Amino acid sequence: MKRQIFGTDGVRGRANCEPMTVETALLLGMAAGARFVRGDYRHRVVIGKDTRLSGYMIEQALTAGFLSIGMDVLLLGPVPAPAVGYLVRSMRADLGVMISASHNPFHDNGVKFFGPDGFKLSDDIEAEIEELMASDLTGRRADSRALGRARRIDDAGGRYIEAVKASLPRGLTLDGLTVAIDCANGAAYRVAPEILRELGAKVISLGVEPDGFNINHECGSTYPEGLKDLVPERAADVGIALDGDADRLVLVSERGELIDGDQIMAAIADAWRDSGRLRGGGVVATQMSNLGLERYLQARGLRLERTAVGDRYVLERMRADGFNLGGEQSGHLIMTDFATTGDGLLAALQVLAIVRQAGGPVSQVCNRFRPVPQLLRNVRLGAGTNAALLIDAPHVRDAVALAQSRLAGGRVLVRKSGTEPLVRVMAEGDDAGLVENVVAELCAAIGRSTPSAAAEPARSP
Q1: Tens-binned pLDDT, residue by residue, of the chain (461 aa)
Q2: What is the pTM of this model?
Q3: Which of 182, 200, 305, 342 is most buried, judging by how many CB atoms fall within 10 Å of its CB?
Q4: Are 237 and 362 in contact (CB under 8 A)?
């Protein structure tokens, strides 16, 4: 079975346009509910969301679909995506749903599913849901007496706060630390500052005034410029920038330097190796992680296992091969000792614990390796362009092969985005000028086949 509407991270698109319409969300709720109704008991689904205006619409449509199948709906309100993964297990629900388009602008939205074990659904199960959407669901509707009920869970945020705080080593607090936190006007705007305050930190908050439109707008992990200025200006010890659903983060040092997911993984891997906690003999990351991270880990007897881009693929490899640390350069950090999915706040606390124990500044603790020059550009495609066919075109494949040969010892990656009409072009190597030339030539080669295409700087991988 082939998935049509599911991408690399659930269903995503522009709100009120297919597939993010009321009609499709209703059908999605019915089909997902039908897939997870598996016995003679009251089935439950928990639904969380971020702060987008369209979240109300999608939430109501999904709720109606689930209720019609006979599933009870527990509405969490605005909570981080990892809170859904946590609460679907702790509340013994059959399914979890997060309504969010993550780091995308407000006009987009998406739906991510979590199974009863708290992990995101596999490709095969998503394909089964799509097959059910294409079938006649009339016979799967619940009897009038068996319709589901919906209610709001007022303490969902508090439950998640306690779970995240429990990940910090016993007896360790954040007393004396000044932490600036940018919540991207997104799902963590309430819980993130509260977690830090309850652990003893002095908190400087920004991106905590969502209005339905300003999520990720010039703030958060994809736009940390404001935080980079604020941290040294306010003499903060560290800055934390989350994205719209708070499953990723980047850090800012006390000097205003950006610290990406690769450096964070290196710092945690080192600390966990030294304490005997690191499992799997290394770290799982994607094809986007910097070659410098791979060389750094190898020098310490650790390995870097690479996967396709997407935190779900990282997690699949971690579970299959026994790793407990993985993530993406963009800041998705997965620590299966604590969570079933990427969690920006959990990752931030692990780094802060390392900083407290090391007794040094963030700029020192989180500066583990020198990144190899790497450049990422997006080529935005014209309407109707098939990204997969374009990438497989002979002249593009030839251009990629030539680029790889020129970057002896470096890497080239050309792939389609799973969330936007883009082709992403990445190259890295020890010669920064050559990397820049190679990326420009690849973007030009791709653009020749789609006249309305335009190369642009990449906001996020």
Answers
A1: 567 899 878 999 999 999 999 999 999 999 999 999 988 899 999 999 999 999 999 999 999 999 999 999 999 999 999 999 999 999 999 999 999 999 999 999 999 999 999 999 998 999 999 999 999 999 999 999 999 999 999 999 999 999 999 999 888 999 999 999 999 999 999 999 999 999 999 999 999 999 999 999 999 999 999 999 999 999 999 999 999 999 999 999 999 999 999 999 999 999 999 999 999 999 999 999 999 999 999 999 999 999 998 888 999 999 999 999 999 999 999 999 999 999 999 999 999 999 999 989 999 999 999 999 999 999 988 777 788 888 888 999 999 999 999 998 899 999 988 767 889 999 999 999 999 999 999 999 888 766 555 556 665 44
A2: 0.90
A3: 342
A4: yes
CATH code for 259-365? 3.40.120.10
Is 102 among the catalytic positions? yes
The candidate with the shortest Cα–Cα distance to 361, out of 186, 172, 231, 208, is 231
Task: Return the CATH fold of 160-255.
Answer: Alpha-D-Glucose-1,6-Bisphosphate; Chain A, domain 3 (3.40.120)
* Residue 87 to residue 98: CA distance in whole angstroms: 11
Catalytic residue among 54, 68, 100, 102: 102
Class of domain 374-457: alpha beta
Task: Name the fold adopted by 6-154.
Answer: Alpha-D-Glucose-1,6-Bisphosphate; Chain A, domain 3 (3.40.120)
Break the chain into its structural domains and give their ranges: 6-154, 160-255, 259-365, 374-457
